[in-house]
Structures are given as C-alpha cells and as structure tokens.
Queue: 3 jobs
Job 1
Amino acid sequence: MNRAQLTPSGWQPSRRTCLAGLTGWAGWAAAGGLGAAAWPLQGLAQSTQEREASGQQRQRVRINFSLEPNSLDPTTTSAAANAQVAHYNLLEGLTQIQEDGSVRPLLAKRWQVSSDQRHWLFTLREGVRFHDGQLLDADCVIDSFRRAGQPDSGNKARHSFFANIAHLHSPQPQTVALQLHHPDPHLLFRLGESSAVVLHPSTRAQAERQPIGTGPYRLHHWQRSSRITLRKNPDYWGDAPFIEWVDFSFLQSAAQQVQALQRQQVDVVFQFFTDSTNQFRHNPVYQVLHGSSTGKGLLAFNHRLSLLQDVRVRRAISHAIDRERFITEVLVSQGTAIGSHMSPQEPGYIHLANTYPFDPELARQLLRQAGLGQQAITLRLAVPPAPYAVQGAPLIVHDLAQVGITVVPEFLSWSQWLQGPFTGDFELTLINHVEPLDYAIYGDPGYYFGYDNPTLRQLLERHRQARSHRQQLQLLRQIQIFLAQEAVNAWIFNVHVGTVVNKGLQGVWVKYPIFAHNVAAMRWV
C-alpha cells in the first residue's frame, strides 16, 4: 500500500490541510438550553465563601450552562451537554479539534494514509493510562469503534462516520489500521469529536455515570440537579492542567445566571446572545466573547403524522414563520436566517433562506390547496427549556395562528424532551441542532422526526461514494436544495454565541467548532 506519512509532532495544520483540500471552517456545536433543575443560588454563595476563606479560588474554575447532562458517555447519547462536561476533560479520542477548527494529535501521535484516502494507520502514544491505571492499547480503540458502529449503540456519528468503517485491526499493540468503504475528507475531524472518544472494554459499561477515561481530569462528584465536580488527574500522560478543580453548574433561567454573575459566583457562563448577555459587555469583572455557531435552529416536524406528510402543509408552515422577527426579538439580532440543514459556518453551505419568505397569504393559500381551508388545525409544540425555545415559542404560536393553525405549547424539562420528542413522541418541536455536518440524519427513518425518502437516501449514498471534492460539493448542494424544497423541517436561524467570562481567566474558546470546554487549556492570570 502506497502511503504518505504525516508527521504531526508539534503540528497545528489548518483544516484545509487536514481534510484533503476542503476549505477551513470554524463553527460551533451547541444545543443551548436550560438544565432540568437549577443550582440554588444559596449553595453557590456558600461555595464561593468557602473558596475565599481557604484562599484556593484560583485553583478552581466555575462553568455554568443551562442543560444538565443525562449521561457522561457521549458515545451512546446525542445530548450536547454530555460532551460539554466529559469531552477533553474526562475522555479523549485519537485527535483533538482546536478552536479554529484545525486538528492535532491526541491519543494518536501520528498517522499514515494511502493515496486513495481509504486506508489509515494510527500509531498510539506509549504509556497512556486510564484513570484506574489500565494501559491504552489498540484493542481499546477497536472495541470503542466497533461498539459505536452497532445499530443499537445510540452513537450520533454511527451513520455519518462509523458505518463507513469497513475493517479494523491491529498490526501491533500500539497501532490501529482502519479501512473505509469510501474516502472521508472529514475523518481526522470526526475522530476529534466526542462520539469517537476511547473507553476501556472493561469499564465502558459504567461510563454513563462513572466514566474512566484518559483525560486530564477525573470525576470527583456528581450532585444531581446541582453540579458536577472534576479534579485534576495527577497521573495524566500529557501536560498537567493549571487548574485543580472544575465545577459545572446548571442554572435554569437567564435571571439566575445574571444574578450569579452579579454576585461573582461563576467564572464562565456559556450561552447564546441574549439581552442578559449584552449587559456584561462593559462589566469591570467580566468580558463577553462573541463567537460564531454551526447550530441549525428549526421547527421540527413529526413526519409520522398524516397532516405533516403533506408537503403543502409543511411549506405553508415554513412561509408562516417570520424568521427575521424571531432573530431580532429572541436572539437580539445575533443570528442569520437559514433555509436548509446547514449553517453558514460549514463547508459547502448555500443560502436558501429565501426559499420560504415570510408570506402568510401564501401559507393560507397552500393550506386551502391541501383541503384545509375551512378545517380547524391544532398542533402540539414541544418546547425544551432552552432560552431560544422558551422565548421563541410565543412567536411560533402567534405566526401560525395568523394562518389558521392553533399551536398549543407544552413546556418540557430537558429529560422530558429527551424521553418524549427525541424518541418520536411529538408533533412539532423547536430545537437547535448542534452537530456540524450532520445532514446524514435525514437518511435515517428511525430518527426522531421520522422522515423517510428514498430519493434523499440515494443522494446521501452518492455523496458518500463521491471520489472528488468537486463531486462532494455538488452533491451536498443538491442535498440542501432537496431538503429545502421538501420543507422537511422549517429552518429558522443560525445563532451566535456569547460567553461571559471572568477577565482573569484565559483559554476559554470564543468559537466552538465542537461543543466542548477544554479546561486543561485554561489558566488564571
């Protein structure tokens, strides 16, 4: 096999270099939202007083976001909050994605690739140990990847990546040979996502609650509905982190987050741009980091409902939504209208927001064409606890009422959303899809919105088998146009992110190509 070896020691290539000529991009993956329960502010205050009394506050960083993880195993669940805690802190993969979207070695110290881009050979670092002392070897990687590719794995990259692995084997204990069905220009990037972290075969079953990884931190304590605390791993194989302790907290409302910031009870609040974010732009203690996003905010349809199987109804709903008003009022104008399942930050994106301009009269006309002009239409809207959803639901209710559709909002906790809509039990739901390059979900009839179209599946398969970058981009364009014309969902926004950060803390990302907080790269100054 003719291979060209890459020598990644100290290597910081652009994604263009890593991904075989694709244009570089830096996005963000977030599932923004509110946690199922809040961390009481009183407990926050007590924790702060204790740290100040002990003089150890600079040994700890306190990160707040809205969703509490339902698992710490990102290889079997798709909720982005899970990776937000575990990825790069507790669990690691073969590569690591940087803030600018570039990829560098992590558990793999180097790799080789064949000229046809289908055969890869990864050499693992020697002496890497899991938190319980067990050694990392090729069998751990192979077991993790085979597990991720199982039909019942729950891995969010099963279709987009792991199904493309034709063969895995280990020529030597520290090398992994990977053969693909089709070349994947995103392979090194995909290996740096949370879906590809490596677990040990003997402890992977406990990863949901007590993950044993190779990362720079270990799980110290998980107080349900309150906080998750990590502590520095004294035996970490890489450079030791600067920060000893990490507290992840989950405040349920923007008002609580603002109050915690005003009391200096948190160091980082990770959030979409809102009015509450803007008020800290000129704060003496905090700064606001303004970054881009690869999230796709949409009104998702359940295609199992006969009403929503009519493309005229789906198009009518798409025309009924005032996207610009949604972006202005809910996202404080910090977003972009989109019309298909890609964001402007992703390679191959084409602008399709004009496919369904705001046109209530056209929406009413389409409903009449579908035979629903005089018929009362009522749809339930499942609302997850994310700020964009809670604040955006009234606008959806208003807009659809103007065309004769009554929408009944049902406000859910995050766990209720995962157990209900995400299993297919819903009619409409307002949600932000956060994974980059995740258009392949529309080829899975079992996915939560139940879309089943053989023409699209053929397009996706042709895209997977495309041999050239030009062919891939042409087919990706066709996929986006097809989804838009079919009005598979009503896409609304691509949102920016505003992270409020203590000015004394360095290393917090501005842009998020994936949904992760690499605490080992943070330090107090």
Job 2
Amino acid sequence: MTRMSSDASHAPHASEAPETPDTSPAVSSPISSAASRPSQAADTSSASGASDAPGASGGPAGRLRPAAGGSGALPSPVVRTVGEAEFAEWVRAKKTGFLNPPVVPEEEVAVRLRTFEPDRTWGAFDGGRCVATYQTFAQEVTAVGGAAVPASAVSGVTVSPTHRRRGLLRRMMAEGLADARERGDVLASLIAAEYPIYGRYGFGPATWSTVWEVDLLRAGLDRRWSGPSDGGRIDLVDGAAVRAFGPGLHDRVRALRHGMVSRSARVWERSTGVDPHPSDGWKEPFYAAYRSAAGEVEGYVAYSADGKWDDAKQPVNTVVVHELLAASPDAEQALWRYVCAIDWVTRVRSGHRAPDDLLPLLLPDPRAARVLTHADMLWLRILDVPRALEARTYAVPGVLVLEVRDAAGFAGGRFRLDASPEGASCTPTTASADLVADVAELAALSWGTSRRSGWRRWAGWRRPAPGRRPRPTCCFGRHGARGARTSSERPPRPGGGRCGRPRPGGGRCGRPGTAVAAASG
C-alpha cells in the first residue's frame, strides 16, 4: 500500500494513509524532521497487492481496463472513479487494506468528505463491494535550487487480501499516472509502507529520513539554559497561532531545501486539531514559537511528553518532537536548546528529520544522539523528463545525452541536457546516449540524494557505447546546488573548515541530504 503523509514529523503509520493532504512530518521540512509532517505523501502496505507486476501498463496512450475473464477465470473487478454515495464503502475497503477495524462511523465519513475529490479517487469494485483503493491530490515538490514542481501525490493505496495477485494495483496505478500526465504534472510522489513495491512502477527513493534519540544525561548541555542570547525569545502558543504563521513559515523553509513538499490549509488544520479524523486519536501537543529580536516568527516546534517517573521517584520523561520547522540557524538552535532544557525530561526523540540535520552537532557530545531510524521517505516518479531536469539548478556547466527507459511509456526517450549555473535546457535528441537509466533511478539521482561517488557502481547506469566516457557528476553533483543547507545554516565542521566550492546564488555548499518529505497536499 502507499501512504501519504503531510510531513515527516507527522507521517502516518503503515496502517493508515491520510486522504487529507497532510504529513514532515514529508517530516515536512528538510531542515526539520518531518519535512517535512505535518506534510504528506503516499503510503502503501503489503496488503496492496505489492507483487502485481506492471506488465503492459498501457502508458499514457491507453489506460488499462478490466480484462474479460477467460474460461473458468474469476470475473475481473471493475476499476473506476468513486462517487460520493460509494465513499463510505471506499473508506471501509481502505481500512481493511491497512488492517484497521473496518467500521466507518457517519461522523468520520463527514469529515473525510471535506477533502474528497471524486475525479482523483479510484476503486476496484467486485459487484457492489470495493476491494481496492487509490487516490491522489495536488502537491508541489521543491527541486534542487528551490523551484516548486507540480506533482500528483499518491495516497490510500490498498488491495483487500481476498483480491491480491489479480493486477488491481497495476491497473489503478496506470489510471492514476495517466491522469497525472494528462493534467500536466511533472512528477508523482508517495511514501511507501514497503520498499520493494513501487520501483516496478517507475518510482525511486528521492529523500531519506533519520530519527535520533538524545540522551540528555550525557549530552553535555547546560540544563539551566533559560532562553536565546541573540535577542530572540521563545513563547508557548496554541494551535490557532500555528495556523496563522505556519503556512508562511513553511513556504519560506521549503524554498531552501529540495525534497520538501507543499501543504494545504487542511493539513494545517488536521495537524493542529481542527476536525481530526475520529480514527486519528488526536492529542493536543505543546507548541513553542521562536521570535527574532525584530519580533518575526522564524521557527516553531510541536512536541509531546510521556510523563514517566521511575521507582526512585525520579523523572524519566521523554519528549517526542512532532515537528521542528526553522527558517534561520538562530531559530533552529534555540528551539532544540529549548526542547532539551525542559525540566523532568531525560530523553528527546527528534521525529523524522533530514539525514543532514544539525541536531547531533549542536550537542557538546554528539554521541549522545543515537540513530533510531534511517530509511527512505519520499519516492518520486518522473512523468516529464525535460520539465523535471530543467526545473533544478546545476553547479557547473555540462552536456549529457541521457536515454531514459520507462516500461510504462510515460517518460521514456533520449534527451540532451545542456546545464549550467545560469539555467538548463532538456530536449529530445537522436544523438548517441552517454548514459542509459531507468526512470526510477533518474528520479533519485536528479533530486540529489544518490551519492555522486558511487554512480559507477549503480547497476542501473550503463555505458551503451564502448569508448564513451559518461560524466553525470558534472550535471547532477550536489556541490553548489541551491536547496542544500547554506553555509550560514550549519556550524563549522569538526576540525574546522568548510567546503570551498562556489554555489549559484552565493554561499557555499552544504551537506546533500534533503528533507524528509511527505506529500502534504
């Protein structure tokens, strides 16, 4: 199944994919743990018929329709969009696929209908019963360099256990991707509950997420810290205040880091307790906002505590950060110091963060930050190669003839990429290819998350002609790419010094990791 979450910090578990554009916690901000959740992305689980091979997916020219059953074959369910009268049945099927109780109260249907889009919601129906689900919503994904790229976020993908291995996921995926291509989306995005499912449909892992747990008893921080020393201040606020300043703050941050996703107003409402789904189990968190000396909100953190004491009557509370979003290094450092200095707290869990997050380096003893999770987050599927490659920035000039292979027929072809720090053009060509790559591998490479030094060992990249020397790093290297953390946003490296390579727009290169993004619609 696929799950969509609005941010990395609020990503849903594998058992639930929010239809409402919401998850960082895409972690929703690359600077924060949920890059981006409360951001959102697609989420799929094994119940989704993950083993259905794409086969002849039909491509944009012809969407797959139910095949007539042969002699003795079971009748094929009909894949089609869902009407409002069938929505409760669709929700029941989705819950079944995610192993949630298949009960759909009327009040839950009413809340979910607020974001229901009939033309972007598909189901497979066997008679009057829905046995598979799939939906999408509009989203923007930040490219390397800060450009917002239109995408179709995939969510709520399930196949009931009674109807697995019948090609239902393949058929729904073909419908959804064809619809996105016709609508003009450059990408499709999702967060996968299981890693092996979506590569076969052209998706590649574009961003990664890391969760740390900080042992405050050994971190070396001054627990008497009482506030920022830069003239700023931290105030506790409520959800209404977050809904007021959050969207503008998030837009500032997502322009800085590639891999972050946009969020709708509904995402902000759900992440702050306005009409949550009855199945969400909503509990009000604490919110703290950082204001600069000029009074501008430059960051905020949402967190909760477990309230535990040991047998010796000593507090052993753990704070869980749901999202920490910061538009300046002062705000980021101050908010982490605030969370780590709360009385009675002995451990802090960071929530989903970008792998290059500053948290460990802010501690006198970085080893006090233990990695709990490091895994793929946002998966991308390129639907328009020229627009995808032209949207990002490039550190140095380079020319690359790239042959893209796409079994589904949406984005395949041979293209010439002329890239420079001033801009790029990507056009079809008949010239000999320097490199041949699958569309899924291109998504991971072009979004800046694959290692430049390891591309030769990547089985998917092939040299089609003897004697040619493909050099993808001249185009896809991350050094100098805007969208990486700027030099002003990170402390000096241990031992001193920074990378001295120039970057477009000024500054110097930061580390390559992107936000943990989710598709927040």
Job 3
Amino acid sequence: MNKNLIKVLLIEDNQDDFIMIYNLLSQVESPKILLDWENTYETGLTVMKKNQHDICLFDYHLGETKGLETVKTAINLGCKTPIVLLTDTENQELEIDLMNKGVADYLNKSEINKYTLNRIIRYTHEKNQSLNALKESKAKLQEAQKIAHLGNWEYDLKTQKITWSDEVFRIFGLNPSRLEPTYSEWLEMFTLESQQLWDKNVIFILEKAESCECEYQIIQPDGTLRYIDTQATLIVDNNSEPIGLFGTVLDITDRKKAELAVQDLRQKEHLLGLILDRIHQSLNLDEILETTVDSLRLFWECDRVLIYRFLEDGKGIVEKESVAVGSSPILGQIIDDPCFPNTDIIERYKQGYINIDVENPEINKCHVDLLKQFQVKASMVLPILINQEGEKQGSETTAWGLIVAHQCTHKRQWQISDTDLLRRLATQIAIAIQQAQLYHRLEKLNQELEKMAYVDSLTGICNRRHFEEKLDQEWKRLRRDNTSMSIIMVDIDYFKPYNDTYGHQRGDKCLQQVAQTISAAVKRSGDFVARYGGEEFVVVLPNTPIEGALKVAEDIRTQIEALRIPHTASAVSKWVTSSLGVANSRCCTDSNPEILLETADMALYNAKNAGRNQVYIDDL
C-alpha cells in the first residue's frame, strides 16, 4: 500500500457522524487519509473480509448489533484489518473486554476532534505495521536459516585473522572491497555491553566446545545502531584441538525494533495500569500527582515532568514536579507566560498535544524565551480538562492545567505512543482531580450538616441536642478527675409579654442579643453555652466551684440588663432582665448530670418566685 495514504473504513449508521469524521479527516494533509463508508453491519462485514483497508472505525452500537459481536465474527472470517471501536461512554471494564477480544483501540465519540482522530488512526496504523513487521521478519529469519543465506565469518585463533563474507560487510556498514578488519577492530564495532557479552560467550565456546547463538548490538561507521543474531561454533583440528571459530551473522534490526516497539507499548500499558490502580485506590490527590510525575520521568528517562495548574489571573503554578539530577527544579514557581493573553494557546492545549521543538520557527518568540529560561529544548504538553458544573449552562469543559514533559539536555522527538500515553494519563488525572473536588465538597457539606445538627439556627450557639451530648462527655471526664461542675440556668423575665408587645421579630432579635451577651460573659475555653428551649439558656462551667459560678451568673445578669432593651410589659423593670439559677456538684458515681441540671432548674424557679432579676444558688 502507499505509505503516504491510509485507507480507513467507517462502519456507522449515523450519517451526521460520518460527515463529522469525513470533515475532520479532510483537514489532515499528511499522511493523506482516504475514508470509505458503509452504513450497515452486513455490508460493512462484507467489505472488512476483503482486507483492503488499513484501519476500520466501527460504531459500537450499530442498530441491534454490538461491536464485540462484529469483532468476533470478523476475526473468525479472517479479517486482519485493525478495528477501532467508536463508543459513547468512558468504561474501563469495556476497554479491557475490547482489548481481550482483539480490538486495536477505542475512541469516545465525545472526545473526537481533528487531533484525537488523526492521532488514534496514525497510532493504530503504526502499531499494526510494527506487529506485521515483527511477523514478517520472523518468517524471513526462518526462511534464511533454511537456505543458509546468511553472512558468515571465520576467526583463526593462531593468526587472529578474521575473514568476512560480503554479507557481513554490508551488515556492518562497510564496503566489501576493503580489507577485513582486525579482530580488535571488529570488537570495537560492538557496543560496550555487547563486547562484554561476546567475550563471555567466546570463553564458554572454548571451555565447553559447544555452539552459541546470541544477539548483539553494533555501531556502523555512520553511527547507526544495528542488531545482529550470531551463531558461533568451535573449529578443531584432527587432534580435537581448537584452531578457530566459525559463525553466521543475520541482521535482525527490523525484527528487533518491532519487538522493542511492542515491548515499549507493553511497558507503557503496564505503567498506565500502575498509575490507574493508584488513582482508583487513593483519594489523596497529592499522592496521585506525585506518583504520576515520578513514574513518567523515570519511564521516559527525560529531565523533567510537571503538573502545571492554571490560576485565576491567567498565570499558573508548578503544582508537582519530578526532576532529574542536574536539571533545575521549578516546583512551586508562579509562571506568567506572556503568550497566554495574546494567543489561542490555551484553546490549542484543549484540542490536543503540542509537541514543541524550541528551535522551531513556528513557535512564538515569547514562548521560546520562556522555555529557554527553564533550559527546555523539547517539550510535550497535554491539557488536563475537567467538567465544571455551571448553575445556568450545565457542564462545561475547562482547562484545569497541563501535564508537561521536558527534555533539557538535548533535542527529542516524542513518539505517538508517548503522546497517547500522556493523553490517557491526563484523562485519568482529570478524573482524580474531580474525585478530590467532589470529596472536599462532600466533606464541607458534612461539616455544614453537622453544624446544622448541633447549632441553634436562631442564636448561633449550641442547641439542646448538642448540649446534652457535651454535658454527658464533660461529666464523665470530670468524674475521672474527681472534680466538680457548675451549671447556670438563665431565663428572660416576662418574655411572653415581650413577644406579645413587640412582636416575634423583635423577640428573635432579643434572644440573639441575650445569647451573644451570655457567650461573651463565659471566658474559659472549656465552658460552653446552649439554648435550652424558648427563652431559656444554660451555661456549663466544668471544674468551677459555686463561688466562681455565682460571679459568672451575676456578670450575665448585669450585662443583660445593661443592654437596655426596652420592656414596658415587664413587672420588674422597664428593661429586659433575667433570672438565673446556679447549682454545683462533685462529679461522682453517687450523682449524675441530670440531678445537677434539675437542681439548677429548681434554683431558677426560686429566683423567679423571689421576684426575678436575680441570681439564686442551690448547691448539692
């Protein structure tokens, strides 16, 4: 097939989806993508069986037929075209099932744009070519071994002379017309690791008198790295004494690169799986982000990986960073990119990755200057997009930040598989961020609900339910310490006539003022005030003798009267006044907080009977 043309078959019963995909692919200039369309399962399967396309885009829901059924049928009928399913939802279990059934990849329709569609087609095409190259190279190796069409060499142990066939010269990137290199010159063309492996294998052959087959990496004169498969065997004379080595050489570079590409892909999938496990097992966003940047930098062996969060003023902060030794850390720095206000760079981030070569003339100078400030020579950037729920317009996709890889020591061309990995990680990081945000919102809501459950909505102090719980807790604590507790019961004098005279709105305001006054009179951190009911309040004073409680009660009474809240319906004063009952008890097994509360309530009753606007004491 034409290397500059990718033939794509779309099986989709929705004409609007076909038009959208056709328009997007029409914008791709290189490689050119030719799109064929079938709108039924039956016609699509017929075309698939011909294996005339490089990739098949298949709608997961096609009428009453599901994509997995088609995959199974197509494979059974001998379809070799890689299939990319188009789905409507993000489903990790479905993804695993798809891969197990032989699907090359999948794409969520909501994520389709020019960049994602082009990227997944190119990535699937390249991956399929790598797998086909691996199969083809293995078949060629088997055929070459059958007909012995291999380069060969011979090494004389006595003269240390090595003899090559023309094929070996070609494999090592040398002209067959030149003299054979010496043995030492030959070894110098191996990488250091391969030299050590060769020496070890030669010792094995000489000692064991057995053949040895091994793979080595060589460096051609122009610096090109190649992989060879060498079979070596011992040559002996009539007396079974070793006199030399004989071997064959096969260039396995294509096969090895295909294997390494598949291995690299598996490693990326493994890395992605590890990070996904961490995301799913933890609600700690800091831990998730640190794991991501550390794992990516070590995997790619790059100089810096960072998570960059946008701030409200258009600037951004380096939220998390993993940096190699020798590279400058920029963690926590506020970065003001001058390109942001004047370009559509954030919108470009939203559309897909930006692969930046600092010396690329198409990059804005302001952005180049910023990258050079951080010693960046190559950068790979993907946005972290999250869905924000708006009050009026519903869900809106916004750029929370960026996940960025930097190469600082040298230029670097990132692979499509690298950007695909980063894209998938950016999606999972966005999910983790939204999980963390949801968790914090729920935590805040729980705190507000707890506050509503324990705080009196009118006065803002403890309600009766919270009072009863705290009273029981304090009593048990003081009982362990064998100390005492005092309680003050406070009642606003003639409050019903006050409400009848001034109305409930003024009555509520009066209750609020009195509650604030009582709270202000209670000084110690362990003391607490609660609304007991209606116009009654209660003050709990742990580890306070009756004398101290009396002083606090008198302060409360005088300060309430000092508010000078008019009360023409009162029989004791023209101002709002209060009556207070005080009781004290040692916290022991012979008593309980209910008895103390009843005693304070009896003291309050006596204060009211004695004429009100006074403090009455009743000590247990």
